[in-house]
Structures are given as C-alpha cells and as structure tokens.
C-alpha cells in the first residue's frame, strides 16, 4: 500500500474518505474526537466490529428496505498501520478546518473499501469526466404521530426548523431555503426549486463532483472548490445544445410561477410553512435568472431521482422516504419505549446481546424489525421492535443520494446495458444531450441505541428555538 496512490476525497462527521488515483475505489476510515488522539477510544477488535457492523447493517438491513440496486455495502479491509499514518499526515492539510475537531483513526488499521460512487463505470462512449451530484436530503415527511405534543411540528418540517437552530448556534451563517418536502414531493417544479436552493446554500446537503473530484460544496478549505459562476461554466459543455431550444436565461418571474404552479398541483398536505411563505409578500423567494446549462442539470438530476423501472415505488426518493417513515411514533412517542428497553437492560444487562441492541445486524435483526405488534401491548418486544425501526429510519434520514452522469451517444440507442451495471438510458424531452446515469444511496451506518435521549433533547431545543424565532419575526 502506497499513500501516494490515494488522495483526500471528503469527510463527514464520522468518517474520512480517500480515493484511489486510478482505480474507482475509496477507503472510508473512522474518525475520533481530537481529544482522544493520543489514546484510541476503542480496541482494534472493537473498531473491526464497528466497521463490520456498518457493512452488515447496510447489506442485510438497509439494502432490503431501500433496494439492493441502490446500495453498495463494500467490505472491511485491514490496512498496514504505517500506510494509515502516512495517509493521515498527507490528507491533514486538505481537510476543512471546521472538521478538524476529529482525527482520523490511525490505530486500528480497519477501513471500509467501497466502489467510488462519484466515478462509476458508466456507458461512456466519450471520455468526458463523470459529473456527480450528491444530495443529503434529510427528512422528507411531516410527523403524523399522535404523540407529537407541539402543533408546529406537524406544519413546519424538521429541516426548516433546524435551520433556525443552526443559525442561532452559529453552525451556519445563513439559513438554507431548501425544504426536503419540495425534493420529496415528486413534483418536478418543486424538485427543481429544491435543488436550486441547495446550490444557493449547499451547507452539508450538496456536493458536486467532476471526474471524481469535489468541485462544488460549502466547505471552505477544499482547494478546487468554486463559486456558482464557475460551476455553471463547468456545466456548459455537458448541457449545451442548439441555440434557441430554450431561453438561455429564464426570468425569476417565470421560475416563481413554475414553482407556485408546482405547489398548487401537489396539494397542501405536502407543504411546510417555510415553503409556503414563498407565496407571501415581500419575503417572496425570488430566484436569480439561470442559464440553460443549470436548468438542464436540474432536469437530468430530477429525472434520475424519479426514475423507476416499474412502479413509481421503485424510485430512489420513494424508497428513502418509505424507510424514513418507519419513524411512526416520532421521538416523543419513541422515548418512553426507549426507557422501557433501557430499564430492562439495567435489570438484565446480558439481554443486550439477545435483543441485538448493538448488532449483529443479520436476518434475525430484520425479523425483529418487521415482527412488531400493531399496538403497544406493553411488551418488551414491542418496545425493542419500535426502537430498531426508529434507528433504521434515522439512518435513512441521514443518508446521501449520489447521482452520477455522463453524456451518452444518441446514435447508440440499443437498450443493452453492460452486464452487472445498473444504468438507465434517459433522453430529455426535446432531444438535447442524452445521459447515462447511476443512482446510489450511501452513508448507511447504524445509529447507536444510546443516542436516543440526545435526539429527544435536540428535538426539544429545535422546536423551542423555532417558536422563539418565529415569534420574533415581524
Ligand atoms: P455524516 O456526517 O453525513 O454522517 P459520514 O461521516 O458518515 O457523514 P460519509 O457521508 O459516508 O461519512 O462520507 C463522507 C463523504 O465521503 C460523503 O459525503 C461523500 O462525498 C464521500 N463518500 C463516501 N462514500 C463514498 C463512496 N462510496 N464513493 C464516493 N464518495 C464517497
Ligand atoms: Mg454523510
Ligand atoms: Mg454518516
């Protein structure tokens, strides 16, 4: 293993990813809080178990719920410690400062090896680099549980409320106007609007890659990161065709009309207040005019997100949302069940293994998830089942969707895909460039059982912050 063959690719809160310079693979390494850097917080065996749990949870649980065509679970690999140390030194200066409260695990040598989903092998007649859009969509539905105590939670979506909290806490300077309910609405205009908002304010919800390298994200510190104008400039060769098929600039008024039409088409139950305010007064969310390349990018991405080979329930968005909706009780209804399990584990600590609270994530786990009494019969089994379902839903709410695309030749209209590849030929309506694309879902780690109390506190903080800030609004 030679560290010079790997480069920094990106990171989240829990892991750091490096990509191979030639092969289309990545290594995903664990991260620890910086204060633990001298002293690893877990043994090598525990680290190995953690990474194996991630693979098992993804392949045995999430893949069944989301569809195996979207999920790549990878495999655990053991790396030489010297390689890992050199790698950690090499990538350190490329890491964004705001992520450096954690350090890469250099003690266990365990990592997850995955296909590089930003540069999959697609039907690629030209040598154009793959374009890849990564979206972290977050929760796409309003809670409907009778346990919800604050009415506002059934009107304003969690992401929109959370934005107020994040700005108040200084996590981000500006609120994002992206609303997951728009993205998951299935209505093309609303979906376009949602992705435009992500591009305006990507935070950690949007990244764009070209040829496997991140070219657009909110993170400062990424060398080649660029602003909107240079992004649009980059898109031009992919999406330009003809001269007059489409106005090169759509006016903001036209876009707004499009959006409002989309809103009325999709019905009120889909709206959250933060989106609705678009329709009102001076705060109307006016969009800047955009060139053709930007609109075509949105069109292709939306097509990919909605594409299905059978019923609409095959689309990636549908599958992600269905899995998120396993959170049927909301954290408020789930918490008492968490307490029931917690009490049982205090009385009988050995039961933690039998109930599979920390794995193994196998068929038996999936069965526990599915075999849930429809009503709370006061049993431990009901509580365990609901807790497992909630954790699975949390994973789906935190995952990312990758849409990788390359222009394909219009002449070759045979429908044969290459063996073993999931790819779809898609043609835009007025015969502009055609694209081959692949859609995947990543970051499907199990969420720890012990995190549940923190989720309740966070929920309470977000709601009270939102109520305070919305009262303060004129
Ligand atoms: P989060 O904070 O969202 O929980 P995380 O720490 O769990 O993130 P990931 O989201 O899995 O980490 O990975 C971090 C980033 O690395 C992703 O946003 C993505 O850009 C990149 N990445 C992860 N896995 C792959 C992959 N298989 N192919 C290409 N890029 C990947
Ligand atoms: Mg992530
Ligand atoms: Mg994650």
Please give a structural write-up.
The chain has 474 residues and is an alpha+beta fold. The chain has 2 domains: 3-115, 2-Layer Sandwich (Phosphorylase Kinase, domain 1), CATH 3.30.200.110; 131-324 and 396-472, no CATH class. Helices cover 40% and strands 15% of the residues. It has helices at residues 44-66, 81-92, 158-168, 180-183, 188-200, 228-239, 252-266, 273-276, 292-306, 316-324, 330-347, 351-354, 363-370, 380-398, 452-472; strands at residues 6-11, 15-20, 25-33, 75-78, 102-104, 110-115, 131-135, 206-210, 213-216, 249-250, 290-291, 400-408, 424-426, 434-442. Strands 1, 2, 3, 4, 5 and 6 form a 6-stranded antiparallel beta sheet that branches. β1 (6-11) and β2 (15-20) form a beta hairpin. α3 packs across α15, α5 packs across α9 (292-306) and α10 runs antiparallel to α14. The N and C termini lie far apart (60 Å). Bound molecules: adenosine-5'-triphosphate (ATP) and magnesium ion (MG) (2 copies). One magnesium ion is lined by residues 12, 400, 443. One magnesium ion binds at residues 12, 14, 398, 443, 445.
SSE diagram, text form:
Layout: E1 6-11, E2 15-20, E3 25-33, H1 44-66, E4 75-78, H2 81-92, E5 102-104, E6 110-115, E7 131-135, H3 158-168, H4 180-183, H5 188-200, E8 206-210, E9 213-216, H6 228-239, E10 249-250, H7 252-266, H8 273-276, E11 290-291, H9 292-306, H10 316-324, H11 330-347, H12 351-354, H13 363-370, H14 380-398, E12 400-408, E13 424-426, E14 434-442, H15 452-472
Antiparallel strand pairs: 1-2, 2-3, 3-5, 3-6, 4-6, 7-8, 7-12, 8-9, 10-11, 12-14, 13-14
Bound molecules: adenosine-5'-triphosphate (ATP) and magnesium ion (2 copies).
Residues 9-15, 17, 26, 28, 114-118, 134, 207, 398, 400, 442-443, 445 line the site of adenosine-5'-triphosphate.
């Amino acid at each position: 293993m030679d560290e010079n063959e790997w480069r920094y690719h990106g990171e989240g809160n829990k892991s750091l990813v490096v990509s191979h310079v030639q092969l289309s693979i990545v290594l995903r390494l664990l991260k620890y809080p910086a204060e633990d850097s001298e002293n690893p917080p877990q043994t090598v065996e525990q680290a190995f178990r953690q990474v194996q749990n991630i693979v098992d949870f993804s392949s045995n649980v999430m893949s069944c719920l989301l569809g195996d065509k979207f999920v790549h679970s990878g495999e655990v690999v053991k790396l030489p410690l010297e390689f890992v140390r050199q790698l950690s030194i090499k990538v350190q200066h490329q890491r964004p400062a705001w992520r450096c409260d954690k350090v890469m695990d250099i003690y266990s040598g365990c990592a997850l090896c995955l296909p590089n989903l930003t540069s999959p092998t697609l039907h690629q007649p030209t040598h154009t680099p793959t374009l890849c859009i990564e979206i972290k969509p977050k929760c796409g539905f309003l809670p409907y549980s009778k346990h919800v105590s604050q009415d506002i939670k059934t009107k304003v979506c969690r992401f929109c409320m959370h934005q107020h909290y994040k700005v108040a806490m200084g996590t981000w300077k500006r609120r994002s106007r992206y609303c997951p309910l728009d993205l998951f609405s299935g209505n093309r205009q609303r979906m376009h609007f949602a992705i435009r908002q992500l591009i305006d304010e990507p935070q950690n919800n949007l990244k764009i890659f070209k040829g496997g390298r991140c070219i657009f994200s909110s993170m400062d510190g990424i060398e080649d990161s660029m602003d909107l104008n240079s992004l649009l400039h980059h898109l031009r060769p992919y999406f330009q065709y003809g001269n007059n098929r489409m106005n090169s600039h759509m006016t903001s008024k036209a876009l707004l009309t499009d959006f409002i039409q989309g809103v009325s088409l999709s019905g009120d139950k889909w709206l959250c207040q933060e989106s609705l305010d678009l329709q009102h007064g001076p705060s109307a969310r006016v969009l800047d005019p955009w060139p053709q390349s930007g609109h075509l990018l949105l069109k292709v991405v939306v097509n990919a997100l909605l594409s299905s080979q059978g019923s609409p329930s095959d689309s990636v968005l549908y599958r992600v949302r269905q899995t998120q909706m396993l959170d049927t009780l909301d954290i408020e209804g789930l918490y008492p069940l968490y307490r029931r399990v917690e009490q049982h584990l205090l009385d009988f600590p050995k039961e933690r293994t039998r109930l599979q609270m920390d794995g193994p994530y196998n068929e038996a786990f999936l069965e526990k998830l599915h075999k849930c009494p429809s009503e709370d019969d006061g049993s431990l089994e009901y509580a365990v089942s609901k807790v497992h379902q909630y954790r699975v839903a949390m994973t789906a709410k935190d995952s990312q969707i990758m849409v990788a695309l390359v222009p394909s030749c219009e002449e070759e209209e045979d429908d044969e895909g290459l063996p073993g590849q999931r790819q779809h030929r898609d043609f835009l309506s007025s015969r502009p460039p055609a694209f081959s694309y692949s859609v995947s879902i990543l970051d499907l780690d199990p969420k720890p059982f012990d995190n549940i109390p923190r989720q309740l506190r966070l929920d309470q903080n977000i709601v009270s912050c939102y109520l305070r800030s919305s009262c303060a609004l004129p």
